Amino acid sequence: MVVDVGRVESLTSGLVALADAVVLVCRAGVDSLAHVLAFREALPAWDQRRVVLAVVGPCPYRVAEVGAAVGVERVVVLPWAPRSAAVLSGAAVPRRLRGSGWRPSALASAAARLAELLAEAGIRSEDLVGSGR
């Protein structure tokens, strides 16, 4: 089951503490990364083995540098790609269809990497998408 708790606050921190995996989503700026660090320090049962940090948008820092700064081993950078997101969610149609030579978008490739990181944290894909629950 996937639950979007929005901002983690006192009302949602208990739910986050009980989660099998946590995907923290933030922008690449220093302010957003500082919020991740504050969250990490505020969560009493912090277990970085079950946490993935998804940084959205252009990131001026290396993935390893971000992870070391905020204390998260698993970090993925997702491109800011509203058009690709709309196509992947079914809200828009691709501009052109290709019968062959299909290439995944940067967003789809980054999403695949996120799925790999979740698998490393012990989360199966069927627990995330199409589980029928």
List the helices and strands and how they pair.
Elements (H helix, E strand, L loop, with lengths): L12 H6 L3 E6 L2 H13 L8 E6 L6 H8 L3 E5 L3 H8 L16 H15 L13
Parallel strand pairs: 1-2, 2-3
Description:
The chain has 133 residues and is an alpha/beta fold. It has five helices and three strands; from the N terminus they run αβαβαβαα. Helix 2 links the parallel strand 1 and strand 2. It is globular, with a radius of gyration of 16 Å.
Task: Supply the key terms.
alpha/beta, 133 residues, three-stranded parallel beta sheet, 38% helix, disordered C terminus, globular, 5 helices
Radius of gyration from the CA trace? 16 Å
Show unreliable segments.
Answer: 129-133
Oligomeric state, counting identical vs distinct chains: single chain
**Helix run count:** 5
How much β-strand is present in the residues? 5-15%
**For the terminal residues, how far apart are their CA atoms?**
7 Å
Q: Order of helices and strands, N to C?
A: HEHEHEHH
In short:
The protein is an alpha/beta fold. 38% of the residues lie in helices and 13% in strands.
